[in-house]
Write a structure and sequence with these properties.
The chain is mostly helical and about 375 residues long. The protein has helices spanning about 10-15, 30-55, 65-70, 75-100, 110-125, 130-145, 150-175, 180-205, 215-235, 240-270, 285-305, 315-330, 340-370, 375-380. The protein folds into two domains: about 30-175, no CATH class; about 180-380, Methane Monooxygenase Hydroxylase, Chain G, domain 1 (Up-down Bundle). It contains 14 helices and no strands. It is elongated, with a radius of gyration of 28 Å.
């Protein structure tokens, strides 16, 4: 099953990098600007619709529905669902404590206790993001002057929030929906491309002077990992097939594992550019490194196309690993001619390269099975 959706701007750029599409001018109204305008229009639509419906049905303080719609409306469907859940739970907790503590004790102690317990209960339930909303609800119920009873205030507050959230969810789902899983797929493809560039920059330090791009690539990768983790949380709240959810989760986990493996490789190649023992592993070591780099780019293309059932042509990671192990055995007896530090670095580098190669292979094969594309052919690399 493939997503049937128009490509985002960054997906188009990824396709250009992978030579799957030709480049083209975007014009003044770029995709990011169009996306911003669409989000602004949807937020305005949800807020106005809440206000208009509140007037039509004669709801008291109907503007609270508009406020709720504005607060929960996010850039994608999954994030909107998450924000709606947090706001509903916060409102329920705040309405309960606000009404309960208004029945006894005297201000300000009842208000202090209500806020204190609302925050504690929200934290114990694992809903810390709901704590602030619970406190806002308590403040409205207990401190805002009103001729209505506290019970009516609490009930009206819950109904107004629910009304605004329902409208926001309807608008974000039905009007030009923006899916978090689409953005996550795009982000993961970019992540694997940057992982490949980071890998190449690390090996530059192994072959000679350290790459000047290494710090920038590391920072870029960290930002991508954080962003993709957030998108994964949002994507889990969107309706989709189990294969999609499992595939995206596996790729996110694989990206983090590969990043940690690359950091270990970076430490292994430190101060190794003058080592002579590792030169005996050529050209097998270079062939494995080239295939790993090709593997990163190929998996990025697999994510972009959402097809994982075919191995990359001309990339033979397991054979490269076997050849490297055989070469290490063949040159082991020459270790007496080199320093122990050189030998240890060479062994560390080849071990980390093998780990990265197998993580790449596992990422494609496991994702292939998760999304229902697994076959005997897909397991051969």
């Amino acid at each position: 099953m493939r997503l049937r959706t128009k490509k985002t701007w960054s997906q188009h750029q990824l396709a250009v990098k992978l030579r799957l599409e030709s480049d083209g001018k975007q014009g003044i109204l770029t995709f990011e600007r169009r996306r911003l305008l669409i989000h602004a229009a949807k937020t305005a639509l949800a807020a106005t619709l809440c206000w208009w419906l509140a007037l039509r049905f004669g709801l008291h303080d109907g503007y609270w529905g508009s406020i709720s719609a504005i607060i929960v409306m996010q850039s994608n469907v999954g994030a909107t669902v998450t924000a709606s859940r947090d706001r509903i739970l916060g409102t329920f907790i705040g309405a309960f404590f606000g009404f309960a503590f208004s029945l006894f004790s005297v201000p300000p102690w009842n208000y202090v206790l209500a806020v204190l317990l609302a925050i504690v209960v929200s934290g114990l339930l694992g809903m810390r993001d709901s704590a602030r909303l619970a406190c806002v609800t308590i403040t409205i119920i207990m401190l805002v002057p009103s001729s209505a009873s506290r019970w009516n205030l609490a009930l009206d507050r819950v109904l107004e929030v629910l009304f605004g959230i329902v409208i926001a969810l309807a608008v974000t789902t039905l009007v030009l929906p923006d899916r978090a899983r689409v953005w996550l797929r795009d982000g993961l493809a970019q992540e694997f491309l940057v992982l490949g560039a980071f890998f190449e920059a690390i090996l530059t330090g192994f072959r000679g002077a350290p790459s000047q791009d290494l710090p920038a690539l590391r920072e870029n990768l960290q930002a991508l990992l954080r962003s993709n983790n957030q998108l994964l949380e949002a994507a889990r709240n969107e309706p989709s097939s189990p294969g999609w959810r499992e595939g995206l989760s596996l790729l996110t986990l694989s990206g983090r594992s590969l990043y940690n493996a690359l950091l270990a490789l970076e430490l292994a190649v430190k101060d190794s550019h003058e080592d002579r023992f590792a030169q005996q592993l050529e050209p097998i070591l270079t062939r494995l490194a080239d295939d790993i780099h090709s593997g990163f780019n190929y998996i990025a293309g697999c994510i972009h196309r959402w097809r994982f059932d075919k191995p990359a042509e001309g990339v033979h990671l397991e054979q490269d690993i076997a050849d490297l192990e055989a070469r290490m055995d063949a040159v082991r007896h020459t270790g007496i001619d080199f320093s122990q530090a050189e030998i240890m670095r060479a062994y560390a580098v080849q071990l980390h390269l093998k780990q990265i190669a197998r993580l790449l292979r596992a990422a494609r094969i496991e994702t292939s099975h998760a999304v229902g594309q697994g076959s005997k052919e897909s397991e051969s690399v």
